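FAQ: What does the model actually see?

It sees only this:
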Amino acid sequence: MEVVMEKIPISLFKAKCLRILQEVHDKKKRVIVTKRGKPLAEIMPTDEGTEGKIPLRDTVLYMGDIISPVAEEDWEALK
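And it is asked to produce this:
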């Protein structure tokens, strides 16, 4: 499903926030909130089933011990 995008001024968003959020959810719309014509924030629907998931899980690599003191020869190389 293609997401529709709409730009609205911040004053309109403030006045109709709840209705706009419901439309974003129901119609899968993307809304760009602008201030003086410049983008300020983007509101988009969430993906179904992603609530509570950790997006960075399993993206960290263990590279070794980072807590132990550095050996003297390594310290010299770091200078």
